[in-house]
Specification:
The structure is a single chain. The chain is of the alpha/beta class and 604 residues long. It has three domains: 211 residues, Up-down Bundle (Rhopdopsin 7-helix transmembrane proteins), CATH 1.20.1070.10; 156 residues, Histidine kinase-like ATPase, C-terminal domain (Heat Shock Protein 90), CATH 3.30.565; 123 residues, Rossmann fold. 56% of the residues lie in helices and 15% in strands. Strands 3, 4, 5, 6, 7, 8 and 9 form a seven-stranded mixed β-sheet that branches. Strands 11-10-12-13-14 form a five-stranded parallel β-sheet, sandwiched between helices. The chain has a two-stranded antiparallel ribbon with strand order 1-2. A hairpin with a 4-residue loop joins strand 6 and strand 7. Helix 1 runs parallel beside helix 7 and helix 2 packs antiparallel against helix 7. Bound molecules: adenosine-5'-diphosphate.
C-alpha cells in the first residue's frame, strides 16, 4: 500500500469522524434507513482505522507477524460486511422493507456466519517494496460475495427503474459509476489501493441523500398543526352553536311577523313591513343554515341518508321555489327533463334538493334578463340498476371571468365583489354544493363566458327503484282551518316567547290549546286530560323533550301523536327524532305549510 493511499485514508477518516460527530449530535428520527447508515458510517470508520494501523504495522512488524495476519483477515471481513450493509440498504429503499422482518433477521445471521467463515479461511499475503496484497480462498469467497451483492443491487435498480431519479438511489449510481472508474485506475496502477477512499465517498453521499428530517422542526410543525386544528375546531363549534342560537329568536321573529301578515285589522303599509321582516328573516335563516352546513361538512358530521323519491316531483317543487326568486325580472324560465327519467329513484334527496336549489337560486340571483334553462337528462343502466343524472342550469346572466372560475367553489369567496354588492350572499352556496355533490359520489362543473352567461352541471348517480312513474300526490296548498275545530293540543316549550309564537300560529285552527313550560308540567297535564296531539320542544332544562316523551309513553294507554319541535336543523334530524319515538318532527322557525301537513296527517 503506497503512502498516497494511506494519506487518502487518513483524510477520509478525518472527514468521516466529523460526519459522525455531526450526525450523532443531532436528534434523528428512528428510521430503518438512518439505522443502517449509522452502522455503515461506524463500519467505514473502523475499516479506515484498520487500514491505517495495518499500513504502519506492516512496515514495522513485517508480513509474517501474527498481528498483521489478524489485521488482514479483519480487513477482508470489513469489505464483506460493508458490501452486505450497502446491499441491504439498497434492498430497503427499493422495497420499503421493515427492519425487523424475517428476511432482515435471516440475512443478518447469514451475514455474520459468512463473515466468520471468511475470517477463518486461509489467506496469503504478498508484499513488495511499495504494496501489500492479500489472496487465497478467503479473498476469493469475498469476491464471489461482492459479485452476488452487485447482482442483487442491479436487480433492485432494474425493478425500480422508474424511480431511478429518487435521491436515495444516488449512492448506488455513484457506486456503479465511480466503482467502474476506480477498477480501471486500479488496473492501470495496481499499487494504488483506492477502495476505502471510494467507500468513504459513498458514505458521504449517503449522508446527504438519506431522508433525515430535522426532528426539532417536525415537532414544531406538529405543534403548529395541532394548534391550527384546535383553532379550526373552535371556530366550527362556535359557528355551529351560534347558528343554533340564532334560530331560536328567529323563530319568534318569523312567527310573529307571519301572524301580522295574516291579520285583517292592519293597514297595507304595516302588512308590507311585516312581509319585509318575513323575507329578511328567511334570508337570515338561509345564511344560518349555510353556516351550519359548512361547519358540519368540516367536522365530517354530514351523513348521506338515502331515501326513495319521485324525481319529477322533486324537480317540479324546486321550480316552484325558484320562480318567485326571479320576481319581476324579464327572464324566461325553461324546465325540461328526459322522457326516460325513472319514476322512483333512491338517494339522499334532501341534499340533492339543496344542491340543485343552490344552482337555481344563483342563476336567478345573477341573471338580469334572458333565460334560465333547467334541464335533467339521464343514462339508465338496468344491469346495475343505476341512473346517471345530468342536471344542468344554464343562464344568460353576467357570467364568470376565467380567472375567477377556480375561486368559485371556495367557501366564503364571492367573486366580482363590486357588482355583487346589491345581491345578498355569503359565498357559501357553491362550496356547499361542491362538497355535498362529491360526498354523494358526483361531480359539479361549470362553463361560463363573462358577460354572456354560465352553465353549471351536476353528474350524479342514483339507484333506480322503479321505472314506473308513481301517481303524484297533489298536495293541498289551501289550508282548511275549520276541520280542526275543538281538537285538544298540548304545546311544551321552556321559552315563553316561543309558546306565544306557537299559540299564534295555531290560532286560526281554533284548537283548544294548553301551553306548559316544562316536561314535568307536560306529564302532569297528560295525566289529567287526553290530548289529540302534543308539540314538544327538545332543548329544555332539567327534562328534555326526549326524556319527557319517554315518561309520557310510560303512562298506561298513552297513544297521543307527539311531534318534536326543535331549532336543530341538522341533517338526519328526521331519523334521529323518529327513532327516539316521535311521530314527526318540525324545525323552528315553524313553516306553516309543513305544520299544516303534519296536523292534517294526525288530526284529520
Ligand atoms: P353567494 O351566491 O352566496 O355569493 P355562491 O358560493 O353561491 O355564493 O357563489 C359564489 C360566487 O360565484 C357568487 O358571489 C357569484 O359572484 C358567482 N356566481 C355563482 N353563480 C353564478 C352564476 N350563475 N352567474 C354568475 N356568477 C355566479
Amino acid at each position: 500500500m503506497g503512502s498516497f493511499s494511506v494519506a487518502l485514508s487518513i483524510a477520509s477518516l478525518f472527514f468521516l469522524v466529523i460526519i459522525f460527530i455531526v450526525f450523532s449530535s443531532k436528534e434523528n428520527i428512528k428510521s430503518v434507513q438512518l439505522k443502517i447508515f449509522s452502522r455503515m458510517l461506524i463500519l467505514t470508520i473502523i475499516g479506515l482505522t484498520i487500514d491505517i494501523i495495518g499500513y504502519f504495522s506492516f512496515h514495522i512488524l513485517g508480513i509474517d507477524n501474527v498481528i498483521n495476519q489478524f489485521i488482514s483477515r479483519l480487513y477482508i471481513v470489513f469489505y464483506f460486511l460493508w458490501g452486505l450493509g450497502f446491499t441491504y440498504y439498497i434492498i430497503l429503499i427499493s422495497f420499503n422493507l421493515d427492519y425487523g422482518n424475517k428476511i432482515a433477521k435471516i440475512s443478518k445471521i447469514i451475514g455474520w456466519l459468512v463473515g466468520l467463515i471468511i475470517f477463518c479461511l486461509p489467506i496469503k499475503i504478498y508484499s513488495d517494496e511499495t504494496s501489500i496484497f492479500t489472496y487465497g480462498l478467503s479473498v476469493n469467497i469475498n469476491y464471489i460475495c461482492s459479485l452476488i451483492f452487485i447482482i442483487i443491487m442491479l436487480y433492485c435498480l432494474i425493478k425500480n427503474l422508474k424511480q431511478i431519479i429518487k435521491k436515495e438511489y444516488i449512492p448506488l449510481l455513484v457506486y456503479i459509476g465511480l466503482g467502474t472508474v476506480f477498477i480501471i485506475v486500479q488496473h492501470i496502477n495496481p499499487k494504488l489501493t483506492l477502495m476505502l477512499f471510494f467507500q468513504s465517498i459513498i458514505i458521504f453521499i449517503m449522508y446527504h441523500t438519506i431522508e433525515n428530517p430535522d426532528l426539532k422542526h417536525i415537532r414544531e410543525l406538529n405543534l403548529a398543526k395541532e394548534q391550527a386544528e384546535k383553532a379550526n375546531k373552535a371556530k366550527t363549534d362556535f359557528l355551529s352553536n351560534m347558528s343554533h342560537e340564532i334560530r331560536t329568536p328567529l323563530n319568534a321573529i318569523v312567527g310573529f311577523s307571519e301572524c301580522l301578515v295574516d291579520r285583517n285589522d292592519l293597514n297595507e303599509e304595516t302588512k308590507g313591513f311585516a312581509k319585509d321582516i318575513v323575507e329578511a328573516s328567511n334570508n337570515l335563516l338561509e345564511i344560518v343554515n349555510g353556516i351550519l352546513d359548512i361547519s358540519k361538512i368540516e367536522a365530517n358530521k354530514m351523513e348521506i341518508i338515502p331515501k326513495e323519491y319521485n324525481p319529477r316531483e322533486v324537480f317540479n317543487s324546486l321550480c316552484k321555489l325558484v320562480i318567485p326568486r326571479i320576481g319581476e325580472k324579464p327572464i324566461e324560465f325553461k324546465y325540461t327533463y328526459s322522457e326516460d327519467l325513472p319514476g322512483v329513484l333512491k338517494g339522499d334527496v334532501a341534499k340533492l334538493k339543496q344542491i340543485v336549489l343552490n344552482l337555481l337560486t344563483n342563476a336567478a340571483k345573477y341573471t338580469d334578463e334572458g333565460e334560465i334553462n333547467f334541464n335533467i337528462n339521464c343514462i339508465n343502466r338496468m344491469d346495475t340498476k343505476t341512473s346517471l343524472l345530468y342536471i344542468s342550469v344554464k343562464d344568460t346572466g353576467r357570467g364568470i371571468k376565467k380567472e375567477d372560475i377556480d375561486k368559485l367553489f371556495n367557501k366564503f369567496e364571492r367573486i366580482d365583489e363590486d357588482r355583487n354588492t346589491t345581491i345578498e350572499g355569503t359565498g357559501l352556496g357553491l362550496a356547499i354544493t361542491k362538497s355535498l355533490t362529491e360526498m354523494m359520489g358526483g361531480r359539479v362543473n361549470v362553463f361560463s363566458k363573462y358577460g354572456e352567461g354560465s352553465t353549471f352541471r351536476i353528474y350524479l348517480e342514483q339507484e333506480i327503484v322503479s321505472m314506473e312513474i308513481p301517481e303524484s300526490k297533489t298536495e293541498e296548498i289551501e289550508i282548511d282551518y275549520s276541520a280542526f275545530e275543538g281538537k285538544k293540543i298540548l304545546v311544551v316549550d321552556d321559552s315563553k316567547i316561543n309558546l306565544k309564537v306557537a299559540e299564534n300560529i295555531l290560532k286560526p285552527y281554533k284548537f283548544d290549546i294548553v301551553s306548559v313550560t316544562s316536561g314535568m308540567e307536560a306529564l302532569e297535564e297528560a295525566q289529567k286530560q287526553t290530548f289529540d296531539l302534543i308539540l314538544m320542544d327538545i332543548m329544555m332544562p332539567k327534562m328534555n323533550g326526549i326524556e319527557a316523551l319517554n315518561k309520557l309513553k310510560e303512562i298506561p294507554g298513552f297513544d297521543v301523536p307527539v311531534i318534536a319541535l326543535t331549532a336543530d336543523a341538522i341533517e338526519g334530524t328526521d331519523e334521529k327524532y323518529k327513532s327516539a319515538g316521535f311521530d314527526e318532527y318540525l324545525s323552528k322557525p315553524i313553516d306553516r305549510y309543513l305544520l299544516n301537513k303534519v296536523l292534517t296527517k294526525f288530526l284529520k
